[in-house]
Design goal:
This protein has 248 residues and is an all-alpha fold. It contains ten helices and two strands, in the order ααββαααααααα. It has helices spanning 3-17, 19-37, 54-84, 87-91, 98-128, 136-160, 164-182, 193-200, 203-215, 222-242; strands at 45-46, 52-53. Strands 1-2 form a two-stranded antiparallel ribbon. It is globular.
């Protein structure tokens, strides 16, 4: 096994030891689905949700929460801690380069996000008989672009923050507006036209819209996919430009 594989295995084990992270990534979305799914009539199409099944909508929201939590809070916090503790600097004098650790962490977090999505789909499918995403191709693409865009923004937050605490702080500052404008706290159907338009241009907003559409069997609007790709490319490029392996 090469250095990348060994680091990925180690980082995966460390991730599995974090009970709070496991609850947030796997327990929270399942809990949301189970809690709302037990509400009488919520498993029927809801007029206030563009005729989407209520449980299906909550499942999509759960997926969005996982992507935002990992990308906007987990990524900057962990990388900021590694930099502040000198982990990245010490790796710089070993055959395993700091970039290898970064890629290993991103691989573990992305895998956790994909597994969480699969778990949510399975729970709503077997517990509440909600159909699996009708357009699986678009659904998978929406998930992958959502991961790429939100993780890139998280990396940018980690790149520009001088300390671990400020990395986490920037992550949380990005987290709550994204959640609000994406329609996690309340459906975008209840927002004004201006708020819906603004939310569409956030990485989480475009991801949630694309996920909801593809789950219902609709082709996501091209702008959702373009917006996520743009966030991934621009934020990723800026993160690479300004990233520091050691504290300034």
């Amino acid at each position: 096994m090469n250095g990348f594989g060994k680091l990925t295995l180690v980082e995966g084990r460390l991730f599995l030891r974090e009970k709070a992270a496991l609850i947030g990534v796997f327990g929270l979305p399942v809990g949301l689905v189970l809690g709302f799914g037990l509400i009488p009539g919520f498993s029927d199409p809801q007029k206030g949700l563009s005729d989407q099944i209520g449980t299906e909508y909550i499942a999509a929201v759960g997926v969005a929460i996982v992507l935002a939590s990992l990308g906007l809070t987990g990524v900057p916090m962990v990388i900021g801690q590694y930099r502040e503790r000198g982990v990245l600097r010490r790796l710089g004098v070993t055959p395993v380069r700091p970039l290898t650790l970064l890629l290993a962490d991103l691989t573990v977090w992305a895998a956790a996000a994909v597994l969480s999505v699969a778990l949510v789909v399975a729970v709503v499918r077997f517990a509440f008989h909600v159909p699996a995403p009708a357009d699986s191709g678009w659904f998978i693409l929406s998930i992958l672009l959502g991961i790429a865009s939100l993780f890139a923004v998280g990396l940018l937050a980690a790149a520009v923050a001088p300390t671990a605490r400020s990395s986490a702080g920037i992550g949380w500052l990005l987290f709550f507006p994204n959640m609000f404008l994406a329609g996690v706290y309340f459906p975008t159907e209840e927002m004004s036209a201006t708020m819906r338009e603004v939310g569409t241009f956030t990485p989480l907003g475009s991801a949630l819209h694309a996920i909801r559409d593809s789950w219902m069997g609709l082709d996501p609007r091209p702008e959702y996919l373009v917006i996520m790709a743009a966030w991934a490319l621009v934020a990723g490029a800026l993160a690479a430009r300004f990233f520091r392996w050691d504290q300034a």
